[in-house]
Amino acid sequence: MTITCFIRYEIDPFQRDAFLQYAENWGRIIPRLGGRLIGYFLPYEGTSYEAWGLVGFDSLADYESYRGRLRADAEAKDNFAFARQQRFILREERTFAEAVS
């Protein structure tokens, strides 16, 4: 089974550039730690406070292993700390979905 983790972010629209940096950092970190990065998406037209990150995994067990590597990785820890310090993420939600053939 292939699953996709859909991460919905509510961001401070006045800190769009900070979220951009955060997302670019994940672009290096996620693949290195075993996630299949589908992409990060910033608001362009319409709603100014909603962003998305999509990451693929073969199973929920693979996702859990990935989360363990993420918690132990220095660059990932730094990126989480950057988000906490700058406070550009107001809310974050995760949904897991499987593709329909």
List keywords for this structure.
about 100 residues; alpha+beta; Alpha-Beta Plaits; four-stranded antiparallel sheet; 3 helices; 4 strands; about 45% helix; globular
Strand content: 25-35%
- The secondary-structure class comes to alpha+beta
* Topology order in helix (H) and strand (E) letters: EHEEHHE
- How would you sum up the global shape? globular
Calculate the mean pLDDT score and round it: 96
Q: Specify Rg, calculated over alpha carbons.
A: 14 Å
DSSP E strands, number: 4
User: What is the domain total for the residues?
Assistant: 1
- Classified by CATH, the class is Alpha Beta
Main pleated sheet? 4 strands, antiparallel
Distance between the termini: 11 Å
Q: Remind me, CATH topology?
A: Alpha-Beta Plaits
Strand order of the largest sheet: 2-3-1-4
Task: Quickly give the CATH architecture.
Answer: 2-Layer Sandwich
Structure explained in plain terms:
With 101 residues, this protein is of the alpha+beta class. It has a single domain, classed as Alpha-Beta Plaits. The protein has helices at 16-32, 60-72, 74-86; strands at residues 3-11, 36-41, 50-57, 89-98. The protein has a 4-stranded antiparallel sheet. Strand 2 and strand 3 (50-57) form a beta hairpin. Helix 1 (16-32) packs antiparallel against helix 3 (74-86). It is globular, with a radius of gyration of 14 Å.
In short:
It contains 3 helices and 4 strands. By secondary structure, the chain is α+β, with helices and mostly antiparallel strands.
